[in-house]
Amino acid sequence: MTDYTPQPATFRVDKYQAYEDGKVLFEQYTILMYGSDKLCCTRPEMEQLSELIQTALNDRKEADHGK
């Protein structure tokens, strides 16, 4: 029997929200890779990045299915 040691996550996303008068003033996301900050962005920027990543991943799927 081998011992299982969980590996640290490659990526982590931290979310920070600022509130004013009981409302969300802004949201900020920090993407970390191997525990080191790589990118900090606002929600609209994170949504744009998410769409770009999905487009890239879907493009690969379409290329694989087209073979």
List the helices and strands and how they pair.
Elements: E1 11-20, E2 23-33, E3 36-42, H1 43-65
Antiparallel strand pairs: 1-2, 2-3
Major sheet: arrangement of strands: 1-2-3
Task: Give the amount of beta strand, in percent.
Answer: 35-45%
Order of helices and strands: EEEH
Major pleated sheet: 3 strands, antiparallel
Shape: flat
Provide the gyration radius in Å: 18 Å
Q: Give the helix tally.
A: 1
- Supply the helix-strand structural class: alpha+beta
Q: What number of structural domains do the residues give?
A: 1
Low-confidence stretches: none
First CA to last CA: what distance? 41 Å
Name its key features.
67 residues; alpha+beta
What report would you give on this structure?
By secondary structure, the chain is an alpha+beta fold. The protein has one domain (11-65). 34% of the residues lie in helices and 42% in strands. The chain has one helix and three strands, in the order E-E-E-H. It has one helix spanning 43-65; strands at residues 11-20, 23-33, 36-42. The protein has a three-stranded antiparallel β-sheet with strand order 1-2-3. The longest helix is centred in the last third of the chain and has 23 residues, at 43-65. It is flat. It starts with 10 loop residues before the first strand and ends with a helix. The mean pLDDT is 87.
Produce a short descriptive summary.
With 67 residues, this protein is an alpha+beta fold. It is 34% helix and 42% strand.
